[in-house]
Design a protein that fits this description.
It is built from 5 helices and 9 strands, in the order ααααβαββββββββ. It is of the alpha+beta class. Strand 8 and strand 9 form a beta hairpin.
Length: 229
């Protein structure tokens, strides 16, 4: 499948900036080919061999339609999701507990001198701004690494938008500029736009990871990166 990734990178990085002149040249080439075929009388040959022409066309369509639906249709599809931030949920929980009916607390004994441990409050430990891999693979928004409990982390996307594609997944990477072989998979991309959360696997040493990435797993193509600092 890497050949598709190499082809996709060629199109996205080298050809996409020149998409309009290429499109015009492609349309003109098709028109010229159609005129040439008509003058050569090839349409009459196809008409005389209708059965063979129909079989060839059916085979081509049977291959092209599923492949095009998988490879190309995501580029025009968008999805939106809004999930609440763990910071907001924690604030709501604390507000709810503060509004509860107070109860009498036991008075400390004169010998008790230890100060009570303040409750843990979720906090952003790392953050970064998304950027696309190239002009075609655009990406924007914020990546927030939030410690929701001591040693428990959530990766959050906010104000996020990215070019859609097939088989997109979210990773934490040790490479500050993109995907790495030892990246940790967090899950399938939940949406092309919006704000959503990913639980980091328990026990993960988040200090090792330098970026959040959106990566096409099947074709090994980078779509977007947010360097975390």
């Amino acid at each position: 499948m890497t050949i598709f990734g190499d082809l996709e990178r060629l199109i996205a990085e080298d050809l996409y900036p020149y998409r309009w002149p290429i499109t015009i040249a492609f349309v003109l080439a098709i028109a010229a080919a159609a005129v040439f075929a008509y003058r050569m009388g090839w349409h009459m040959i196809a008409w005389r061999h209708k059965l063979a022409t129909g079989v060839i066309a059916a085979v081509l369509l049977a291959v092209a339609i599923p492949a095009g639906d998988y490879l190309l249709s995501p580029l025009w599809e968008r999805s939106h999701l809004e999930e609440e931030s763990p910071l907001v949920m924690a604030s709501d929980d604390m507000s709810g507990s503060d509004s509860a009916t107070p109860t009498a607390e036991p008075q400390p004994s004169p010998a008790a001198t230890d100060e009570p441990t303040p409750p843990f409050e979720p906090r952003v430990t790392h953050s970064g701004e998304f950027s696309g891999a190239d002009d075609f693979h655009f990406g924007r928004g914020k990546a927030l690494l939030i410690e929701t409990e001591p040693g428990v982390y959530t990766l959050r996307f906010e104000e996020f938008s990215v070019r859609n594609g097939p088989d997109l997944f979210v990773y934490l990477s040790t490479n500050p500029n993109g995907y790495s072989e030892d990246a940790v998979l967090l899950g399938e991309l939940k949406g092309t736009d919006g704000a959503f959360n990913y639980d980091v696997p328990p026990g993960t040493d988040v200090s090792r990871f330098k970026s959040a990435v959106v990566w096409c797993k099947s074709f090994a193509v980078l779509f977007a990166t947010a360097t975390l600092a």
